[in-house]
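re: that chain from earlier
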Amino acid sequence: MLEVEKVDLHYGAAIALRQVSITVNVGAVTCLLGRNGVGKTSMLRAIVGAHPISAGSIRWEGENITKLPMYDRAKRGIAWVPQGRDIFPLLTVKENLETGFAVLPRGQRKVPDEIFDLFPVLKTMLGRRGGDLSGGQQQQLSIARALVMKPRLIVLDEPTEGIQPSIIKDIGRVIALLRSRGDMAILLVEQYFDFARELAQTMVVMDRGDIVLSGRREDLDEADVRRRLSV
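^ sequence. v structure.
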């Protein structure tokens, strides 16, 4: 379980998160929804250690990781698929996948065959440079690279952004499969309600750095959630 409790986060004098609390359970998808600029990515950056928080605490599997640097959180099984994918454009697909080895013991540094079961297109492109892939293929590579780390918590920041519908379906299928295994916590940031509704057990809606709605998917009023996502 991931427990974020009363977290504040600042960028200089500007506050991005105010007293934000969220729980993410293993074996479930928790979806963080909201308009652009409401603090969703800031929340993920706080969780993975990419930006220090000003107040509050973050616990993972019972351990307080609030002060841990990003690489130590990765060693504890926290993987991040950032918005914009951030693959290495000059490295091959194979080399991009192998960057996930950094947090693994030497004996486990092998790309699992399952990666290519989940993303068959990558197996045919191992020698191609990451920058030569389409946006959808780069997104699949970014998720696959995170899975190479054998995470117990995977944090995905808008994986459907700018992606063609066929690959959105493939990504949704992979997330649903990971959820069904019951051994991984999944935190998904999304703007598209329909994609979130298909996958999430719990929905959390943010606005201006605060959580304004939270609960089980079936308990939330769909019209109210959609209203808070509209521009």
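Residues 2-219 form a domain with the Rossmann fold fold (CATH 3.40.50.300).
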